[in-house]
Amino acid sequence: MLTPSERARDASLSRRSLLAASAAAITATAGCTGFLDNTDAASSLVDAVPGETTLLAHLDVEAVADGEASETDLESALEGLDAFGSERATEAIVAFEDRTGLDPLEANEVVLFGDVDAISSDATEEEVAAAAAQETIIVDGDWSEDDVVASLEETTDLEYESESAGGDAERYEPVSVANGDGDGGDGDGGGDEPPVLGVLGDGRYVVGDEDGVDAALETHAGDEEAISGSIRSAYDGANDGPVTVAAVPDGSPLPDEFAFLAGGNDDIFEEIDAIGLQYDTIDDETVDLELDFHVDDDSDAEQLETVLQGGLSALGELDDELSDASDEATLEREETVVSIVYQGDADAVAALLAVLEGV
């Protein structure tokens, strides 16, 4: 099997905390309904994401691993972020290792894409874990194609066969499943079906169920349109941190129980086309968060800014921790994008996000 690098062994955060920290930020925006500097590598991964995607998350693994936040502070912040059901993304990243035998902390960067409504808000832990095992993940790493296939075969105890997917791309699927032999199990790899593998070239791989991998391969080949429109704009606008997320909400992202924060003007949240989020740790006590709301026109942006300003003020009256967060948070508006920007105590960020569950 592959040997962990010094970077992974020496990371200041525990494996679970690092993955959970990244996942919590991812699902903070995934909850809209229920990463990284803008490099060529990042663009190449996102360019393989199919156009129908409504949830897109990018993780710069090295930047997260090099973060200065302590494990204790990070885990404390995660208690509040759990309100977003961070199990989905955490389980998806953990399932990647369970199903492939590849360490996600060995990757250079990771992209997760899918449907924000794929898992209902009232799903059980077992349902979340089962669904997360089918999430589609694109990784950029230093693994060779032979190593990836060997790791898959050893983990699933199945033989994989390849076929050309156009250009330099390859597609691998288990021989027994492809031929209808066996019971569709996947050894110790977790999940109901063994993963399909797509090889995009230059150390980039896509892993997931058949539909997700095929969609990424077709997009990579230019046979299908890549992600674009409001969600791509939200992603590009937020793409300036170790963790970047973009999502398209299905209706208003404001939970009913917090509609009072809008002062009777909660209809404006129905006008939000997409949401972008960037998240970073500054030191062992401080996090940097920006949440961008994209709307159609200047009038909607102006109204949303006004409503959010009132909502942040109202949040400060709920408890002391929220008061600190709401006092330090600022609102910015640039054309049709309204942003909540906060840099401060990790616990206060967690409390703020927990109240804004669904945003």
Task: Give the key terms.
359 residues, twelve-stranded antiparallel β-sheet, 14 helices, elongated, disordered N terminus, TAT_signal
How does the SSE layout of this entry go?
Layout: H1 6-10, H2 15-30, H3 40-46, E1 55-60, H4 61-65, H5 71-81, H6 87-100, E2 107-114, H7 125-132, E3 136-141, H8 145-156, E4 160-164, E5 170-174, H9 175-178, E6 196-201, E7 204-208, H10 210-220, H11 229-238, E8 243-247, E9 274-281, E10 286-294, H12 298-315, H13 320-328, E11 330-334, E12 337-345, H14 346-355
Antiparallel strand pairs: 1-2, 1-8, 2-3, 3-7, 4-5, 5-6, 6-7, 8-9, 9-10, 10-12, 11-12
Characterise the protein shown here:
The chain is an alpha+beta fold. The chain folds into two domains: 6-220, no CATH class; 229-355, no CATH class. 39% of the residues lie in helices and 21% in strands. It contains 14 helices and twelve strands. It has helices spanning 6-10, 15-30, 40-46, 61-65, 71-81, 87-100, 125-132, 145-156, 175-178, 210-220, 229-238, 298-315, 320-328, 346-355, and strands spanning 55-60, 107-114, 136-141, 160-164, 170-174, 196-201, 204-208, 243-247, 274-281, 286-294, 330-334, 337-345. A twelve-stranded antiparallel sheet has the order 4-5-6-7-3-2-1-8-9-10-12-11, sandwiched between helices. Helix 2 (15-30) runs parallel beside helix 5 and helix 5 packs parallel to helix 14 (346-355). The longest helix is centred in the last third of the chain and has 18 residues, at 298-315. The protein starts with 5 loop residues before the first helix and ends with a helix. The relative contact order is 0.15. Mean pLDDT is 76; it is low at 1-18, 31-42, 68-86 and 182-191.
